[in-house]
# Entry
Amino acid sequence: MRSRRRTALLAVAGLAGGLLLTAPQPASAANLIKNPGFETAGTGDMPYCWSKSGWGDNDFTYETVADAHSGSKAMKVELTRRVDGDRKALITESADCAPVVTPGKQYDLSLWYKTTTPDANITLFRHDATAGWQYWTDLKTLEMAGAWTEAAVRTPEVPAGTDRISWGVSVYGTGSATTDDYTMEQVADPIPEPECTGTAEECANGKWEVLPAQNPVRSMHSVVLHNGKVLLIAGSGNDPEMFEAGTFTSAVYDPQNGTYKVIPTPDDMFCAGHVQLQDGRVLIMSGNKGYPSADGTIGYQGYKDSYIFDPATETYIKTNDMNDGHWYPSATILGNGDVISFGGLKEDSTGSVTAELFSEAEQQWQPLWKVNQTWSYWGLYPSMILMQDGRLFYSGSHVFGNNIPGTGSAIYDYDANTVTQVPGLQNKDERDQSASVLLPPAQDQKVLTIGGGNIDSNPEANRLTDVIDLKEPNPTYVAGPPIPQGTVDLGNGPVPQTGDQGKMYVSAVLLPDGKVLETGGALHNRANPVFESSIYDPATNTFDPVAADPEARGYHSSAFLLPDGRVMTTGDNPGNGSWNHNVSIYTPPYLLKGERPTITSVIDTEWNYGDTQRITVDRPIAKAELIRPAAVTHSSDPNQRFVDLPLSVDGNNIDLNVTSNPNLAPPGWYMLFAVDANGVPSVAKWVHLSGPQALKATDASAHVHSFADDLSGKVTKPGKKRASQQVPTTVSGCDRHYGSANVCVPTTFPADVKKTTAARCTWLKQHDYGRLKVNGKDDPLRLDPNKDGVACGKGDVRRR
# Structure
């Protein structure tokens, strides 16, 4: 038993005054204490890695008790008689148990305690490489506490020659101290301000670059492949001439060398659905079977065909057919690797009410009788986000027109086959072409919904955002901060946005520093591009305006994260039928803050749920995460997610704790980023996450929550079986009486455009519509008063 000087105790008040913390500060390592909660038994009557210590004339007991702060055990040290000395439970002074320390460093210590005596304090011993174990210091006297109370304190700098320390609570008066849940973490080195490697403006707001090589195809679908390349799918590219010629295209872009390879494409995958399967191949469902008829009596038609794109061979392989056609379907991968799909238009242009399920085990779409059906019409590209308990959250983001009846947002329980409405979504019928994203980290289960409009009524797009916490007993959207405003091109060049002007066709991209980039958009249906980008911080619920993409990015545009941490944007297809082939690259501010950390090795790229995986890095990091690669179209990527990897640090070796819940991180390939304390990410490494198809019953707490069967919203069970939902042929907000199928003359013009031929024709001219043929004899917008078959001709404007 070791003695200590009583004079050291008398000096504690002055020493602890400058060291005591209200809470431990961030540390560069995980808990350094073995058996911190006394749960593991030792060889004698003390828990593993804990020993009795003390000195003097006193009567004492040591006892492992069930009255614990957490777990099932705590340590109680009691003095019933004392003349002098103390008794304490200390970390065993051995190479196996005593934490290793570094001279010159400081450590944050904390524990939970109850005391019946005012005479208890935290005491430390240190191991000197030459002199051996010796008393170091007392740090904090514990105030009496009848309930569990946390004590936290920071050590002085570790003296030279010290390689390990031991510590615990000393009782030096009659009474007891019961302690539990010890922690010890190394204090992180002060973080130096990063050196800006660009201009001051770039370091604050990032920078955009328009690449010299143009996208060779009119792609509206972007899928980041697990080899780092990007699949860009066009199909007919919203060009009826290409459709009639049977010319369907895709391209594979290689960010490493900036080259494109055009890929033969077997069908018109224009406005299909897509998702990465567990093995990294891409499942593509439905597409365009036919454009609307010239007279507007037939709308878009979706085919039943489905394909798988193989990144290894860069070829498409046909699967079995779906049960319905689904032009504009959703696609969500589930925790077992299956894919579920809703919505879209059938082969006859009506709305599909059929849910489709692609089996990972069978590698095919399931027959109708095997799939639970609500016979609900979810609309076009409904955003269906997988929750951590396996249910689906319909966020309210969709494409074309009004939202679903009711509150506009819902939770779908596939197993129970019920739909429960979720309240709180603002202006639910003006969230057309909004963006929804599961915020970082996925473990928090919060969703952000951004912007939107309505192609039917064609109002100015809004600035609304809404945030929902899906872990709440009864999740409800709450209003978030408005989207920052930028400039908008109303037809005569960009001008500042005013009033409540926001944007639809907005893109949202998860970034490796745990924030979200929102970019692109337009004020009206396929018109008036908005030039604005900002970064949303989930921690503060704020938007920070940053540099804006110089290119218009409205309808049929995409934005997505590249493995090097930059963001790529493509496309734009305004109502006049033109296409923007320019490609932009955004370098976020975190890439202009000096040197990046590097993942120097990944021990194993095949990961299982519940694993601890080791990587090595070239310098300290603050966090690591998995980001699922994008598969985005029309502002929609419900599978995008950022999964936090709690880490333990041993020098440059980092152990990452992989979630045991496949609903948090569905199986597949992920980008692994390591991020330093300044938010600077490494270049991603690719890892493949898979494992058991279902968790063990003992792991149920990882995916079952108390609110799972207790939602308070209106619950709907399956409706009556039906074939489809009637949908107007003007579902895209375009009047097909004018121009070709890829030209979108608005069914409803913006509110500030007078309902006269001259005003409408002026608006069309400002937006570069060119010559518009009138299809048939009807002229519902009065664009051809002289009835010569050409809308907005000289005679038409002169007459009206």
Notes: Residues 1-29, 693-709 have pLDDT under 50 and may be disordered. Residues 368 and 381 are 21 Å apart (CA to CA). The helical segments are 6-10, 12-19, 200-205, 240-245, 757-766, 794-799.
